[in-house]
Amino acid sequence: MTGIILCGGESIRMGTDKGLLQTPPSPGSGLTWAQITADKLSALSIPVKISVNKKQYGDYSNIFQSSQLVTDKASLKIKGPLCGVLSAHLQYPSEDLIILACDMPFMETEILEDLMDHYYKHPGSEAYVFTNDGKPEPLCGIYTAKGLTRIYDLYGSDQLHKFSMKHVLEQISTYTIPLPDDKKKSFTNFNTQAETNSL
User: Fold this and answer.
1) Which of 7, 34, 36, 106 registers the highest number of CB atoms within 10 A of its CB?
2) Which residues contact residue 108 at a Cβ distance below 8 angstroms, ignoring those fewer than 6 apart?
């Protein structure tokens, strides 16, 4: 199992790279959202890699070791999180991946541990995600090597008609975990500067 922090988005609405943001309580420590998210996945005692696009590589190499960075593959004509996920899969083809977006600052390690627990107790599925009011939360989930190979093969044969992560989950065997009401805040993601004022 390898952890992948998704930082490769364009952050157009935020106006700045979300993975490099520093908000309370991190300003005093100088930790970015990417570092905070990486620390949460590292608590699972697994290796953690940072998914970035080519333009971000320089900034992130000032924070993380180059061996921790996974750059989007130029051969993938895909935009959005799926590009980062498949790029990581191509670099670590035999690894199951637990992925987490960098813009969920309320995420709790307890939830990630629960996700891993379901993965180990219910083997055989190709993906494991929480559902929020019946809808999947695809950017905090486990995607198996088998499932990602299936998705990459569909992409390669022009049979993957949408590149959204929710569509990906519909193409593979997905184990879903209903999210308790008291844990829904952990899945709040932030897309604008105004939204971060609540932090």
Assistant:
1) 7
2) 40, 183, 186
| 89 neighbors 97 (Cβ within 8 angstroms) | yes
Tell me the C-alpha distance between 92 and 77, whole Å.
Answer: 19
Cα separation, 29 vs 43, whole angstroms: 18
Give the separation between CA 92 and CA 97, rounded to whole angstroms: 9
**Spatial CA neighbour of 121 closest among 140, 142, 105:** 142
Contact at 8 Å (CB) between 119 and 199?
no
pTM for the predicted model, two decimal places: 0.91
Q: How many CB atoms lie within 10 A of CB 166?
A: 13
Q: What is the CATH number of the domain that holds 35?
A: 3.90.550.10
Q: What is the pLDDT of residues 77-132, one digit of tens each?
A: 998 999 999 999 999 999 999 999 999 888 999 999 999 999 999 999 999 999 99
Residue 180 CA to its chain's centroid (Å): 21
- Number of domains forming the structure of the chain: 1
Range of the domain at 118: 2-196
95/49 Cα distance (integer angstroms): 12
User: Residue 25: is the preceding peptide bond cis (ω within 30°)?
Assistant: yes
